[in-house]
Design brief:
By secondary structure, the protein is an alpha+beta fold. Strand 1 and strand 2 form a beta hairpin. Helix 1 packs across helix 2, helix 2 runs parallel beside helix 4 and helix 3 packs antiparallel against helix 4.
Length: 142
């Protein structure tokens, strides 16, 4: 039997986005929307001098899976740069497509049941896409 798509752990992660409130003084702010499901995120991000993520804040309007993904990103992205974040996002997308192993992003095992639900993939990738866009903006300005 497969794991349920929505469970207590997913819901606990979803509400954890409240721990990452928008950053009033963030250097980078991006908005993204997942076209298939309509999930949306406003992601605030600060970086250190080397371009690694220092702080994340966000406002997420998504299903519980999208919110859970955003919380996992916020918890584990600090210290990472654009290359690492792109690799993580690409690994998740490849796995969703059935072309790779389950990503080793911390906590991603909780999102594993969503692999069989392509309509949810955009919401799960959305926080990663927003963070990548913010880091690309930072790189372009440097």
């Amino acid at each position: 039997m497969s794991a349920p798509l929505y469970n207590r752990d997913i819901l606990a992660l979803a509400v954890a986005t409240a721990d990452y409130l928008p950053l009033v003084d963030a250097r980078h702010r991006v908005s993204r929307r997942a076209p298939l499901c309509g999930s949306a995120i406003i992601l605030d991000l600060d970086t250190d001098d080397a371009g690694r993520i220092a702080r994340i804040g966000m406002h997420v309007e998504a299903c519980a899976l999208g919110q859970a993904s955003a919380a996992l990103l916020a918890r584990h992205a600090p210290g990472l740069g654009l290359t690492e974040l792109r690799a993580a996002r690409d690994g998740i997308a490849s796995w969703f497509a059935g072309a790779g192993d389950r990503p080793d992003w911390p906590g991603f095992d909780l999102l594993a049941p969503a692999q069989g639900y392509p309509a949810r993939h955009g919401a799960i990738l959305l926080p990663f896409d927003a963070a990548i866009a913010a880091l690309e903006e930072r790189a372009a300005a440097a």
